[in-house]
Design a protein that fits this description.
Length: 284
Amino acid sequence: MRRALPRLMLRWQVLALVRQRDPQLAALGITQIEGDLDRPETLIRLAGISDAVIHSAPPPPQGTGDTRTRNLIAVLQRGKSLPRQLIYISTSGVYGDCGGARVRETRMPAPQSARAARRVDAERRLRRFGRERGRHCRVSILRAPGIYAADRLPLERLRKGLPLIVPAEDSHTNHIHADDLAGACIAALARGCPNRVYNVNDDSVLAMGEWFDALADAFSLPRAPRAPRDDVRRAVPPLQWSFMSESRQLDNTRMKRELRLRLRYPTVAAGISAATATEASCSG
């Protein structure tokens, strides 16, 4: 979570687990620990050294479970002391397709892809760890939807002219700006409740086609063609379809009430406006 680093460094001495040393992190004065979550023998130095952990590593690309989270928990348990807090950045994909319904954190996970199932496995391992360790380690899980920022927008998809679903059949989509996700991590460190799950999304209510139309208009690109749902499924790569096929509207009430997070970009309109302003200043 590089975007959280400036705020973290105001209060914490930050250690970063890296596969290989990163000059940018070194320039910030961050202590780097070389290790690999896929190789447990490289993680020994993590035991007992942290007061708080932000776990943002994705699960491995194959398998039914998240071995990386399993390996992290195992090494944390080996230390003479446990971190007081552990924040895990998960995904709203654990809910699966909800038919456009409003979704609160109390809804049971129903992953529809192997990728999301591995996230559910990570969450269950972490929540069990939190229950077993009680007051010694407070675990909070942040379920984030589509993360975007000026440097991570799906403009190439628009340039390729891949079709989107016609409005009458379209899926509801959810977003969070990368800066606001970083803010949620900071807020969870301060106010996250034990073994608590939080939807971390902005206030936008829109269909996926509306999201791409807004991007196309803002960046002077052609709007994507629309087609019936079955035709789009055959025309786009399977990974893209797995995101397009699921429809839900995340409820962020708990995030606002308990984490007291004030969004810098409360809607995608605000985030897109900031992205276009960034592009204009760079080109100027």
